[in-house]
Amino acid sequence: MYKYTLHKKSIKHICPNCGKKRFVKYIDNDTGDYLSSEVGRCDREQNCAYHYPPKQYFSDKKIDAVSYVKTPTIKPEIKFNIIPSFHNQEAILKSQNHFDKNNFVQFLYSNFEQHKVFNMLKTYCIGTAQNNYFGTVFWQIDNLQKIHAGKIINYDKQGHRTKYINWVHAIELKQKTIKHFNLNQCLFGLHLLNNSNKIIAIVESEKTACIMSLIFDKYLWMATGSLKGLNAIKLKPLKERPIILYPDLGREGPNGSPFTQWTNKAKELRLLGFDVQTSDLLEANATANQRLKGLDIADYFITSLDSKPIRIFSTQAELVNKLCTKNESLITLINVFELCDEDGNKIEIEK
Description:
Elements: E1 4-6, E2 23-28, E3 40-42, E4 51-52, H1 54-60, H2 89-95, H3 103-111, H4 114-123, E5 127-128, E6 136-141, E7 147-155, E8 161-167, H5 168-174, E9 199-203, H6 206-215, E10 219-223, H7 232-235, E11 242-245, H8 258-271, E12 275-278, H9 281-285, H10 288-293, H11 297-304, H12 317-326, H13 329-337
Parallel strand pairs: 9-10, 9-11, 11-12
Antiparallel strand pairs: 1-2, 2-3, 3-4, 5-6, 6-7, 7-8
């Protein structure tokens, strides 16, 4: 065990590299003191990627490495069985209003067919936070229909995420409507598993899963909630199903790009018996600017298709090929997803 570890409490400091208040410092586990104001890691992993570990710090200061490693001590193993908490169905029903003030929902209605958005909101149990921000509530419900959490994210009117992220249980604890809550997250969209035989497509953000379900419903879209949220425990209910991972774009960090990290994670999952692959759709087709912005698959197609998904009928071959000559991204969309017409016939593109 190391004497210095990243502070586990949710205390953020100003990052010495990017200037954002997203910096987590290393703490001395014996004294509780911070090692240095510059020793830590910025959690803006793709946009900043600053990480100055104790080992490098002591090397730079020419301090003996032995001084920062704790002497191992043998302690009796204590196992705690933490019982996860769950929300009740009433919490979801209570959140399903004020959609007219929900920026994310209004963004969807302005860019997609209204009946499709309405059905998607109902399918994924999307809600609105009952506060002044009217943020979007993404409920995490498992395949047994147990409600693990309600993640609240605020968006501006253009559908971009703001800095505000909260949890329904955190607000309830603050309001003292509940006394305790043991958070145990699951995949967003997992509650749809038992009623679908589709291939599972997993992305990072809940927003992306919602939008891709509107653009391409051949797959069942789920979300991990973050780059680091992909693990075997969350994917356990999907063990017998084919899975495709769609990581966001991003710069190379200490652990590689999002694509590299999820590709490596997929290798680990396959060793555990999962049928999982990582798509290189974005990695192979994105521009340098899109990579710099850290776009996800939903951003990519919304941008490529002029912010409006185009419905393609292969029975109208002339129209399809005309559209493809104007927008080459359509060819990528058709080929990668093997799009078919309403009769199940594969769309053919003239070369």
